[in-house]
Design a protein that fits this description.
Helix content is about 60%, strand content about 0%. By secondary structure, the chain is mainly α.
Length: about 525
């Protein structure tokens, strides 16, 4: 290929542009000839940072003028793909992964998603969130020590004192959260080691080809500069592991805030225990979705803003407010986001709601046609049906009992359910596209359901209930079941942490079979 490139260049007496290079070489070899062109195809810059989830070079130039903000799309990746694959219209759906990378992220200024911001914002959020949480819980616990025994809902039949300080508490419920930290740290370490092995394997494969020394030096320099992004040869999915680190971090944070909640468990601080469960479930869905649609993922601030709104809803559900007003807002909000999400997922778009979008959606509803992708449409329909069934039952039950306390559990259950449905859909689409799932992934899924089923069994036993009066909650207390020290809820902590770990591993291993597959033939779903 290198000799062919030289002879072709000398014969035509012209310098190859990035588009010429695309026509003569597969993307897996373009990085070897980076020094012949000004910009290598596939490189574009996010407006949020200097890198993008696939490669990392400069592409989008933002010009600030007196009339406002204007964006000019100069991405060699998008331009070359439009010439070679044809411009992808707003009504057309991409078929291959290479076409997805050619889609402008919006119909307005191009803004790619910088995935590394996800774990950074999550870490900052946790740091600022933990300070007032600690202050609130400590004040509650001090009230308990002062004689307000009804302020903390402990399992008094198995409440272990805090060692060294000999203070009354449920230290067993606190220390059992260490399993979340171990599983989260283990997952992040596995991702790090696996990423290093992939880079090393790719480097050896590249340098095994008989190339000029200057080309080999260029490869090494790019790898040193871009690290994980340096091994982007146009095969497999993109190599940014940031969202996987985000998943591992969410498990660790769940353990920290669950331990903080169990210092003095009550209805007032229940959100500390459920916040990062909800965030982790949402991030799992996003991680799986961005595998095939990295350019269609919403911006980091928009995503975390949505999660913050959901957490605000769980907080309002635990305070006294009219049940009719609360559930009415829930139904309207849920309808809006389910319609928006379904539309985006099916048509591979990121849509801004305006009058024309609403008219388009209403026209499609009033003039139905046979779906182009029947399996995708079926999964979206089933998911929406299950979601609205659960929401409808919760609304009916809440209105009958004039209660909103069920909403946090309902919202968390829906987030987990939607993530599992998407995992099932992803696996079905892989087999329909001629791909496969490696045995290690199936084994991991098997362990997920084994641990999850066992964990739910212990969770449903229940040793306390913060929504009852303190006297009624004490009637549910049960003795220790493990080593005379841990109760049923501690076993739930242990088993659920391993269930989450194996589920995340299954998602991480789902696409090992296409690591060396050219992107031009990878299907999008």
């Amino acid at each position: 290929h290198f000799q062919t490139f030289q002879s072709k260049s000398q014969a035509d007496h012209h310098t190859f542009s990035s588009i010429d290079l695309k026509d003569h070489f597969p993307r897996s070899l373009q990085c070897l000839f980076h020094h012949f062109v000004k910009k290598m195809p596939g490189n574009y810059r996010s407006t949020e940072s200097n890198h993008n989830p696939v490669s990392g070079d400069e592409s989008v130039r933002i010009e600030i003028s007196q009339n406002g903000r204007k964006a000019n799309e100069t991405s060699p990746l998008i331009n070359s793909r439009k010439l070679s694959l044809g411009a992808i219209g707003m009504t057309e759906r991409p078929i291959t992964y290479d076409q997805v990378l050619a889609i402008p992220v919006k119909s307005t200024p191009v803004q790619t998603v910088y995935l590394k911001n996800y774990w950074k914002i999550l870490l900052l959020t946790a740091i600022f969130y933990v300070v007032p949480s600690m202050q609130f819980v400590i004040i509650q616990y001090q009230g308990f020590l002062a004689g307000e025994t009804d302020s903390c809902y402990y399992n008094f039949k198995c409440a272990q004192k805090i060692p060294f300080f000999n203070l009354d508490a449920a230290f067993n419920n606190i220390i059992s959260n260490i399993f979340y930290g171990l599983c989260g740290a283990g997952f992040m370490l596995l991702v790090r080691i696996d990423s290093y092995k992939r880079v090393k394997k790719l480097r050896e494969k590249r340098l095994s080809v008989n190339l000029p020394l200057e080309v080999q030096q260029e490869i090494l320099e790019r790898e040193a500069q871009y690290k994980n992004q340096g091994n982007d040869t146009g095969t497999g999915l993109h190599n940014d592991q940031s969202l996987y680190y985000c998943l591992g971090l969410s498990i660790i944070l769940e353990g920290i805030f669950s331990a903080l909640y169990h210092v003095c468990p009550s209805r007032l601080n229940f959100q500390f225990d459920s916040t990062f469960m909800l965030i982790g479930s949402s991030l799992l869905f996003l991680t799986l979705y961005q595998k095939r649609q990295p350019t269609l993922l919403g911006g980091v601030f928009r995503m975390y803003g949505g999660m913050a709104g959901a957490i605000l809803g769980t907080t309002l559900a635990l305070v006294s407010m009219p049940a009719g007003l609360f559930w009415g807002v829930v139904v309207v909000t849920w309808t809006y986001f389910s319609a928006l999400g379904s539309y985006n997922i099916y048509f591979f778009k990121r849509v801004r709601w305006n009058r024309s979008t609403l008219y388009s959606l209403l026209h499609q509803v009033t003039h139905p046609s046979i779906p182009e992708d029947k399996l995708r449409f079926a999964f979206i329909t089933v998911a929406n049906g299950l979601n609205y069934t659960i929401v409808g039952y919760s609304v009916k039950n809440g209105m009958q009992h004039d209660s909103t306390k069920e909403f946090p559990s309902v919202l968390l259950g829906l987030a987990v359910l939607d993530s599992l449905i998407y995992v099932l859909y992803y696996i079905c689409m892989k087999y329909r596209s001629g791909e496969t799932v490696w045995p290690r992934c199936w084994v991991s899924l098997m362990f997920t359901f084994v641990f999850a089923g066992s964990a739910l069994n212990f969770f449903m036993i229940g040793t306390t209930n913060k929504f009852l009066t303190p006297e009624e909650s004490r009637t549910m207390n049960k003795p220790c079941v493990v080593f005379g020290y841990f109760d049923d809820h501690d076993v739930w902590h242990c088993l659920s942490s391993f269930a989450i770990l194996f589920l995340y591993l299954a998602v991480y291993w789902l696409d090992l079979d296409i690591e060396e597959k050219p992107r031009e033939i990878i299907k999008v779903f």
